[in-house]
């Protein structure tokens, strides 16, 4: 019997619904349950063919446990090794490399010395930094947020350099990003599961959390939605995430990737709404079953992104198309994209996470 386990924290509606849906499907030799851990020994399997990780970003013990499970053959969703290495500033650099538009962003060192360090630990930093060059590059208004944060914690809108220095003085040991403000006419949040299933949702980050998906208005341009889908797939495939959300602020018709490091994205029914909830539960259940069927004991069953595969293989990040004399091949079918109605509202400012 192959077991699919879900590792989760305070959330209930999504993990419980996925467990129930997998078991309802009654696939021969496959069952689902909440992960149960009573001991962790090195190189000892946990007994799950697949684990869907919803909480290890907040619990280091779970992250270490999942790495141990992965090396003993469990297909962990998402890859805990990549999740441990990845952060927002690198993701932006990768996006630029693969041709996905992102806001102009600068990396800012922590205001206070990290515990265990002194000023001598930073002898390679020229102090003061070239603040004028940084501010000229990003511009104001701007947003400041942790380079590896999430959940809208420690996010600030800044109006000028005095505002920056005032807010930055309270960030203690956090390494921050200073990011260009994007004035947008449309905003989308996209689930991407398995690097192939996409649900595009109209989203308003200015609304209260429980109302951000409750939007009404005109339907977005199908060509715009196609580009959003293309960028979503590209980012998730290069990062190697099985389960992620990607957010886009659309400025002058161009979707700009605002946030795409969400490997345990919100899927609570009270915030995403019934239709989005039903989609993500059904798609997650199907994908987890697919991974369980493909899982093989005694080997690596993780997803590795195109960035890692290109690096290990010593190949260019973006492969050049080989010349051909034949007619162009037909395009592969696009991943399923489902959209909500877009609001008819004045342009707004993209809140940064």
**Which structural category do the helix and sheet elements fall into?**
alpha+beta
Distance between the termini: 41 Å
Helix content, binned percent? 25-40%
- From N to C, what is the helix and strand string? EHEEHEHHEHEEHEEEEHEEHHHE
For the sheet with most strands, the description reads: 4 strands, parallel
Enumerate the spans where pLDDT stays under 50 for 5 or more consecutive residues.
Answer: 326-337, 339-346
Can you characterise this structure?
By secondary structure, this protein is an alpha+beta fold. It has helices at 13-25, 60-71, 80-85, 88-97, 131-138, 161-168, 222-239, 269-272, 274-294, 306-312; strands at residues 2-7, 30-34, 50-53, 75-77, 105-108, 142-146, 156-158, 176-180, 183-184, 186-193, 197-202, 243-251, 254-259, 348-349. The strands form 4 sheets. Strands 2-1-3-4 form a 4-stranded parallel sheet, with helices on both faces. A 4-stranded antiparallel sheet has the order 5-8-6-7, with helices on both faces. Helix 1 crosses helix 9 (274-294). The radius of gyration is 21 Å and the shape is globular.
